[in-house]
Inverse folding.
């Protein structure tokens, strides 16, 4: 087990100064208690000890990789997809100064082999959360969910189009049994309220306009992407905005405005 953890620590290029602590904790690490649970990643999320989640994620990289290779998925795609484990560990370290991972349920979806990083975007195989009669989508139908990582260069329409082109070939080649006719996205980036604050050159507006908005619910998850993982509405008075969008969102909420998470659909 320790060998597998170390192997993925090295492949994913974790900070070398973490190695001592990781290997020491890996020494007595066992998956028994974790795997007793029907939903191990949800269980890990509830645990105080966030290092345990990171060790488990590193250990599960091996299964993800071997399963992917059996499907002939190229190594570079598998490793790029797994680099989310490092990204979220670094995020946790930056905000707490500790080695571990908070976003273990998200990593679980990746490690279960449902999400792949392809170019600027991530693509997830899952059933549609809602119907969209106008575009011929029924709730529960197989779709590809689109996720937007905060890394990987400019979020231009060209970069997104390239990612869709890669995804089309990727799923046809490596998951030919998975048939789908729509992309979906559920995100703060599809909240049309943002159009009041952004100009037409904005990458967010251009991305939003490629989806048909179907269902919106009031939500403030935008704050965690605009500021930091633990920002809530109550914190806004203490924040000095750095970008035009941050400033506009703070003003909007302080004047009683709302934000939404929107589910949108796009035909393949
Ligand atoms: C998606 C993302 C790359 C878009 O950024 P972008 O390409 O700069 O977007 P736009 O061109 O529309 O930006 C317009 C303005 O909003 C600002 N802005 C956009 N996203 C921002 C963010 N997450 N935080 C702070 N400001 C942001 C830009 O800096 C720019 O402001 P400026 O004119 O003062 O420079 C960026 O929001 C991001 O990295 N988000 C994190 C990931 C995410 O939200 N995923 C979806 C989860 S559901």
């Amino acid at each position: 087990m320790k060998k597998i953890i170390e192997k993925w620590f090295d492949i994913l290029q974790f900070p070398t100064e973490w190695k001592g602590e990781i290997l020491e904790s890996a020494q007595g690490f066992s998956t028994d208690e974790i795997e007793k649970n029907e939903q191990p990643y949800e269980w890990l999320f509830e645990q105080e000890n966030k290092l345990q989640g990171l060790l488990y994620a590193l250990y599960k990289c091996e299964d993800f990789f071997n399963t992917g290779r059996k499907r002939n998925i190229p190594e570079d795609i598998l490793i790029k997809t797994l680099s989310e484990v490092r990204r979220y560990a670094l995020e946790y370290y930056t905000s707490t100064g500790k080695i571990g991972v908070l976003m273990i349920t998200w990593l679980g979806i990746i490690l279960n082999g449902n999400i792949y990083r392809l170019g600027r975007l991530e693509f997830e195989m899952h059933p549609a959360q809602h119907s969209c009669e106008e575009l011929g989508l029924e709730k529960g139908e197989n779709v590809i969910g689109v996720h937007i990582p905060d890394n990987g260069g400019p979020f231009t329409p060209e970069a997104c189009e390239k990612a869709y082109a890669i995804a089309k070939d990727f799923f046809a080649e490596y998951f030919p049994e998975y048939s789908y006719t729509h992309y979906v996205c559920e995100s703060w980036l599809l909240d049309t309220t943002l159009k009041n604050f952004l100009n037409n050159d904005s990458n967010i507006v251009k991305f939003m306009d490629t989806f048909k908005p179907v269902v919106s619910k009031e939500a403030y998850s935008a704050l965690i992407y605009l500021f930091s993982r633990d920002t809530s509405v109550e914190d806004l008075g203490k924040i000095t905005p750095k970008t035009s969008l941050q400033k506009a969102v703070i003003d909007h909420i302080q004047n009683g405005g709302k934000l939404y998470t929107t589910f949108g659909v796009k035909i393949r």
About this structure: Strands lie at 115-118, 121-127, 142-147, 182-187, 212-218, 260-267. The longest strand covers residues 260-267. DSSP finds eleven helices and six strands in the chain. The mean pLDDT is 97.
